[in-house]
Task: structure prediction
Amino acid sequence: MSLPTLGALQPLPVREHLDLLAAPVAAALADWAHVDEVAVTAIDPALADTAALSAAYDLPMTTGANCVVVSGKRAGEERVAACVVRADTRADVNGFVKRTLDVRKCSFLPMERATEESGMEHGGITPAGLPAGWRVLVDARVAGIEVAVLGSGLRRSKLLVPGHLVAALPGAEQVDDLALAP
Result:
């Protein structure tokens, strides 16, 4: 099976380059049935943010899949979710996400907490390997991306994942209308 390729990124087999992944991401992908369909690529960590990465590596913004972590409370219980949306959209945090989590108010999890609890770096948080109690919501538009660029848990690399497999990541749920249209 051939590795996904995109723009000027140099794909490497994930199974052979687990050192390019944060530990929880490597653990989640190591035995995943589709691991051989996923590539990892080293990047300049200064270019980890979507717009900079797209410009430097000749990638359309529609190939990026951003993962943001949000939380809210209901009856004293905190509910956390990672939301994966195409980079040219944004998560409907105060509408769809709030209703899906059934919380009164939904906001972004503070960066320090998101990185500490996920074991991933800021700018590299990805839907693979997140804590078991977090929901992973993947916008259906992500499935339409031929090759999605996702974080690897580290700023110095990215995952290249066929879009239809993003919602097949362990613990992920594909949902419609998670993102606001571009």
User: Anything to note?
Assistant: The CA atoms of residues 58 and 179 lie 24 Å apart.
